[in-house]
Amino acid sequence: MPISSIYNLYISSDKEYVRILTNILGFVPRNLSLYKLAFRHKSVGNHVKKGFKDSNERLEFLGDAILGAVIAELLFKKYPFKDEGFLTEMRSKIVNRNHLNQLSRKLGLGHLISYDNKSANRTIQQGSLLGDAFEALIGAIYLDKNYAASRKFITDRIVKPHIDIDTLEQTETNYKSKLIEWCQREGRDVTFELISEEGEGRARLFNIRVLVDSEEYGQGQDYTKKNAEKIAAERACEVLNI
Amino acid sequence: MPISSIYNLYISSDKEYVRILTNILGFVPRNLSLYKLAFRHKSVGNHVKKGFKDSNERLEFLGDAILGAVIAELLFKKYPFKDEGFLTEMRSKIVNRNHLNQLSRKLGLGHLISYDNKSANRTIQQGSLLGDAFEALIGAIYLDKNYAASRKFITDRIVKPHIDIDTLEQTETNYKSKLIEWCQREGRDVTFELISEEGEGRARLFNIRVLVDSEEYGQGQDYTKKNAEKIAAERACEVLNI
């Protein structure tokens, strides 16, 4: 074990924090400030420069990209005879915000995140807080170690214990029912509305929007009404964080 | 130099091909079949299994993800005081299809790509052929070597010689003028049309679509008409590969 790790784990005043992180990560973190930054929501960002607050948003940008690459490779190798459309869809089932929120919760990241709970802004309410911190954590691991370590963390600590890829493969997410169910539960009104249709016969393109309590939450365009509704509903689920 | 490289470079019947590739890559490729696959367009894909053709599309999926991660890191480090919105925008300036087509042309990949020029399908006409092969090449490098080698290739062989990031930073892509200029040049008619507006005052949301020769090519939604048009125009530029 490198000296810096021994220091972090046994001597540093942060040793409690280091032990918690080590349990999550599977290795002793070196540069603690990266991890602290990963768990700092923008509502408690430090003003570093005029117009610039230091929060986990930049690390989230980086982590999102690293996660995307690792999952791409994993699916590429797991499914040698599936085309890129399938791979893209499978990846978005894994890395969508709701799934990342769940994973973040399973890892217990909630306790580590610092945020201003008075500023009950939309992000916090919608709970993307957890998924954002999850991606930022991956960005932090990448900078603290390297690509191989991020890949190992994602594979061994996330995918193997928490993601059942074969089950995900079977689940066709039915966004329309998901949205309707959610609206019923929340006592909200949902309507799908045809905005326009263009072309004729098979080449007719439908443009549909979905309204929740008369407010538009998404649009979808496709050659069948059913698919256009599905796309609009998917967009609405994303915006509403359902 | 490993024996496999010596064999590929001096003995193999593919040695001419290996030399061309070595010039492009900056290293001697090991697994040639990966590179051959990267340059095989789907119009000449081999039937491997029922319903599955082996072409560069899967490698493109992988390469796109690796490229995204490498560019994310590069921008993250180059701009320590810029927020994730800026980083995302800069990345899309670098990895958009048109720019990748240009880079691919500069690397001379056009000569290596095999495709069926009789099947004048949309992809080939629109010229995304080059950018697709470029991404697939990065996927091939990743599988042939590793992440570090892909990163080195992208940094040393693409970014340093061919991308002027500071100039890109200054250029605000004006998609509306770009689209209008292109339509004038091609003798096509372009119209922006307000589909709907919702809400009141500052919270009024405009939904605009752009028609080229009466056919819809994109929609945009924003709180100002100008921005909604910009988004719609950007979408149309993407679809039309302008």
Strand and helix map with partners:
The structure is a homodimer of 242-residue chains.
Chain A: H1 3-11, H2 15-25, H3 32-38, E1 46-49, E2 52-54, H4 57-78, H5 84-95, H6 97-107, H7 122-126, H8 128-144, H9 147-162, H10 165-170, H11 175-186, E3 190-198, E4 205-212, E5 215-222, H12 225-240
Helix pairs in contact in A: 1-2, 3-8, 4-5, 4-8, 4-9, 6-8, 8-9, 11-12
Task: Give the C-alpha Rg of chain A.
Answer: 21 Å
Shape of chain A: globular
**Major sheet of chain A: size, sense and barrel closure?**
3 strands, antiparallel
Q: So, CATH architecture of the largest domain in chain A?
A: Orthogonal Bundle
Distance between the termini of chain A: 44 Å
Please name the two chains that share the biggest interface, counting residues whose Cβ lies under 8 Å from a Cβ on the partner chain. A-B, 37 and 37 residues
What is the CATH class of the largest domain in chain A?
A: Mainly Alpha
Mean pLDDT of chain A: 88
The CATH homologous superfamily name of the largest domain in chain A equals: Ribonuclease III domain
Please give the domain count of chain A.
2
Which strand order does the major sheet of chain A show? 3-4-5
Q: State which percent range the strand residues of chain A make up.
A: 5-15%
Q: How do the SSEs of chain A run, as a string of H and E?
A: HHHEEHHHHHHHHEEEH
Described by its quaternary structure, the protein is homodimer
Poorly predicted ranges of chain A: none
Helical segment tally of chain A? 12
How many strands in all of chain A? 5
Helix content of chain A: 55-70%
Secondary-structure class of chain A: alpha+beta
CATH topology of the largest domain in chain A: Ribonuclease iii, N-terminal Endonuclease Domain, Chain A
